[in-house]
Amino acid sequence: MNVKKAYQLTNGVWIPSVGFGTWQIPAGPIATQATREALIAGYRHIDTAAIYQNEESVGLAIRESGLKREEVFVTSKLRADRKGYQITLDEFYGSLNRLGLDYLDLFLIHWPKPWGVEGDGKEYESQNIECWKAFIQLHKEGKIRAIGVSNFYPMHLEPLIEATGFVPHVNQIPIWPGYLQTETVTFAEKHSIQIEAYSPLATGRLFQVPEIHEIANRYHKTPAQIALRWSLQHGFLPLPKSVNKERIISNLELFDFEISPEDMVMINQFSVPPKKKS
After folding, report:
1. Out of 43, 52, 124, 198, which one is annotated catalytic?
2. Residue 225 resides in a domain
3. Which of 2, 187, 205, 237 makes an SS bond possible with 154, Cβ 3.0 to 4.6 Å?
4. How far is CA 40 from the centre of its chain?
5. Per-residue pLDDT tens for 86-131?
6. Residue 207 belongs to what domain range?
7. 147 - beta bridge partners?
8. Is 124 a catalytic residue?
9. 108: CATH
């Protein structure tokens, strides 16, 4: 299987096929150092968000890396509780200022509804359309090279597309072995939307599956490398996160082996333990 080191989006923009996720990495020296280590290791795709509250720290590492701006693909996201056209414009420029950049490579609507709101979020449809119109305007102005959404299902995507005729370039959703989100992935394939897989290791719960360790031993790889390679072989774009230098490095070492079709099927069917209720 010819796994790609970069995917081409429908507008011709190339996006590195493995990104460095920064969710839950504390702002300040920890986020700056982790991002710095990722860039040294060879990551050229950094994913952050306004709600992570670490944009300033991430941006500092990018600016101090010595890399040219066009060498690093930078993603941020519109807060889920910020809806509307003008609010979206204001929030975008806030993210841009915190990152210390003059454009973004990718900007996403983080959720179709504010966090903590019950229901499917359909009541926010008109507000999401206004957000999306602002995204399209910023994209036309060259402030964002590609635009997309996160945590959107087909019922949220269809109204955006119908109202504007503009299909998102990316949909970032949780995907890990045993959790394939088939309906949303099928919709994405139909519309040529690139799927990004966040929490590709199921926030660590994947390591409780005995079979992942058995497969990893056979391939002489880490369980994380198996899961991330599995994601790539599906055509997803995984976003592993770590603050550990060794794991940051190993999570990018995915291009020197191939998982067999039989093992891919087995990994598809994993049963990952659910999150423990707090």
Report:
1. 52
2. yes
3. 187
4. 20
5. 999 999 999 999 999 999 999 999 999 999 999 999 999 999 999 9
6. 6-268
7. 107
8. no
9. 3.20.20.100
